[in-house]
Amino acid sequence: MSNESKIDNEEITKLPSGIALSWGFIKQPKRGPKGELSIDKIVDAAIQIANQDGLAAVSMNRVASSLGFTPMSLYRYITSKEDLLVLMQEAVCRIEVPPLDETIGWREEMRQYVLNSIRLFQIYPWMGDIPVSGIPMTPNNLDFVNWALRTVRHFQLSDYEKMSILLLLSSYAKSVGKLSADFEQAMKAGATLDTIRGNDYTGALKQLVTFERYPYLYHVVQSGVYTGDMEPDEIDDFDFGLERILDGIEHYLNKHGQKD
């Protein structure tokens, strides 16, 4: 449903142009042959460029050229690259949120949320390169916020506390997702898993990292854990970190007299 009927609302008109575009508050130009260009076509072209060559390759000139138009033609639809980035992120965040399942606990719900968030950064590595300039305000991004808040719906906590939990989970998902995407890009460029984990350099590090200079790092390097040589098979770095976060949330709930 179009939001054009609300365009005269005083508060709505305060929205940044990229946000307003994502909600459909700004009409598209009608000049030129019908259907020759649109916001969706511009955004799709920009995403294809970012998927292929990274976010740094995205420019209004590059996008216009890929579509066979002049840059000025694009500016009639999207007035800046900053707005284009907002719309690109909004487009790839269009996912189907799983239906509410009251049979699973909040920990499993949070795992699902974090895993899906990480997956976005793995599919679209350039997502992690978009600067964060404010709170999420576009429709699909707010679906993610709403989903995260659904996981804490039974918590007897303040809205501030719930939003702080959301930020904790989202920050962890972005960190792991970006790291995972970086590793995948490195492997596509020719790196091996042993190189990324540092296995190929264990011997060298054992000589370079001395007890005198690195007294706390020394034993970890010597054991082989630092480079992954002796990492236990049953431990996954992501799972370990997420479980400790969930343990912390559970401890906080228990501290405030809430058992579930």
Count of individual domains: 2
Q: How does the helix and strand content classify structurally?
A: mainly alpha
SSE arrangement, N to C: HHHHHHHHHHHH
Bin the helical content: 55-70%
By CATH, the superfamily of the largest domain comes out as Tetracycline Repressor, domain 2
Question: Which CATH top level class of the largest domain fits?
Answer: Mainly Alpha
Structure description:
Helix 2 (39-53) packs across helix 5 (81-92). The protein has helices at residues 17-23, 39-53, 60-67, 71-75, 81-92, 106-123, 139-150, 159-188, 193-197, 202-208, 218-223, 237-255. It is an all-alpha fold. The two termini are 38 Å apart. The protein is built from twelve helices and no strands. It has two domains: 4-92, Homeodomain-like (Arc Repressor Mutant, subunit A), CATH 1.10.10.60; 106-191 and 230-255, Tetracycline Repressor, domain 2, CATH 1.10.357.10. Residues 36-96 form the HTH tetR-type domain. This is TetR/AcrR family transcriptional regulator. Keywords: DNA-binding, Transcription, Transcription regulation. One of its GO terms (molecular function) is DNA-binding transcription factor activity. Pfam families: TetR_C_1, TetR_N.
Write the layout of secondary structure elements.
Blueprint: H1 17-23, H2 39-53, H3 60-67, H4 71-75, H5 81-92, H6 106-123, H7 139-150, H8 159-188, H9 193-197, H10 202-208, H11 218-223, H12 237-255
Key phrases:
mainly alpha, 0% strand, 260 residues, 2 domains, Arc Repressor Mutant, subunit A, Tetracycline Repressor, domain 2
